[in-house]
Amino acid sequence: EDPAIHFKYIEAAAKTGQIKEVERVTRESNFYDPEKTKNFLMEAKLPDARPLINVCDRFGFVPDLTHYLYTNNMLRYIEGYVQK
């Protein structure tokens, strides 16, 4: 239940290419700092935006999410998000 440990886990999984695990933890865990995680995921520029979508949707960062996806030409993720 330590936010620092959960963040380190997300960070390690992202840096080792374990995107499915990053997606799972950002969807299921309630014990990470959403702002810090959002900023990390935006800087990491993962090829799959689902972890970032999870964080932004759950914690109210939708304007940041749409701006990031649009400026990084990840329009298919915007379409998918709007349709869910």
TrEMBL record:
<dbReference type="InterPro" id="IPR055358">
    <property type="entry name" value="CHCR"/>
</dbReference>
<dbReference type="InterPro" id="IPR016024">
    <property type="entry name" value="ARM-type_fold"/>
</dbReference>
<dbReference type="GO" id="GO:0032051">
    <property type="term" value="F:clathrin light chain binding"/>
</dbReference>
<dbReference type="GO" id="GO:0071439">
    <property type="term" value="C:clathrin complex"/>
</dbReference>
<dbReference type="GO" id="GO:0005886">
    <property type="term" value="C:plasma membrane"/>
</dbReference>
<feature type="repeat" description="CHCR">
    <location>
        <begin position="1"/>
        <end position="84"/>
    </location>
</feature>
<dbReference type="GO" id="GO:0006886">
    <property type="term" value="P:intracellular protein transport"/>
</dbReference>
<dbReference type="GO" id="GO:0005794">
    <property type="term" value="C:Golgi apparatus"/>
</dbReference>
<dbReference type="GO" id="GO:0006898">
    <property type="term" value="P:receptor-mediated endocytosis"/>
</dbReference>
<dbReference type="GO" id="GO:0009507">
    <property type="term" value="C:chloroplast"/>
</dbReference>
<dbReference type="GO" id="GO:0009506">
    <property type="term" value="C:plasmodesma"/>
</dbReference>
<dbReference type="InterPro" id="IPR000547">
    <property type="entry name" value="Clathrin_H-chain/VPS_repeat"/>
</dbReference>
<protein>
    <recommendedName>
        <fullName>Clathrin heavy chain linker core motif domain-containing protein</fullName>
    </recommendedName>
</protein>
<dbReference type="Pfam" id="PF00637">
    <property type="entry name" value="Clathrin"/>
</dbReference>
